[in-house]
User: What shape does this take?
Amino acid sequence: MAKLPGNEQLKDAAGNSLFTLREINALGVEEKKGIYGRLVPERLYDLFSISKRTFRGLEGGSRINFIAPEGLGLLRIEIKRQPADRDAVFFLEIADTHYRQIELAFCVIKDPAQPRFNVDIDEAGEDNCFTTLGRNLHEEIRAMNSGLFPNQTQRGLRMFVEFFSLFERFVDALGVELIIAEPLTYDNAIRYEKYGFDYLTGKQLMLEINEGFKPGNYLYDRLDGSSLFRMPGMDKTVWGRSWAIHDGILDTPWNDIIIYKMVGEHAGINTFPRETEIRISE
Assistant: This one.
């Protein structure tokens, strides 16, 4: 049952309660679009002149692509200014889990008016799968110097807080109590902490990172200017730490960090207590 104030259990047009994405995906195309359209921030509809009823733009063409395959508990939403655009302005991927949770796999909200940095492709022009298949150091330096975080290709629209409020209410309306996610970078993990997430795995690593960046400790000492990603002073911000970690400053790779949030609750976790506000370019 929904527990957030003013929220109600999600139901289909026939009055049947819905508890999973898989159940929503079994509905007719227009009905499930209507349900999933609630996950798009109101400001995004207004900013790009998209109808909340038809999901079409002023020119009449479809502007929102809902991928919600029948038989699967998976949803992907893509919004582009124009169909031929390389990047989606809004990209969301969520999924059911086997344990009655909802996984927030990806949410990217870009400002298409901002410069693009090709950190997502290697120097041969191939997709590097979040740098697991190689890095584009020239583009990473340009992005870093412009204030972006690792893996960010463009500045965002500062709309995640609006999305997350809609998403949490949606999860609650399914009667689901737990959201899980896997932050791809250190700054993502810190940002999720601000939204009330705790750690299933990786909390000890986050605490060790904070300790390691204190003056005189091993990560602090590795900020020796040996690369532009490891300059002295980068310990003082989430932005600086995240780029240093992206550059491999840790003794182990950044992986297996899994976080969770109980719907309607804030865990109060803060593994970077010295900072009062994240330097955000989301």
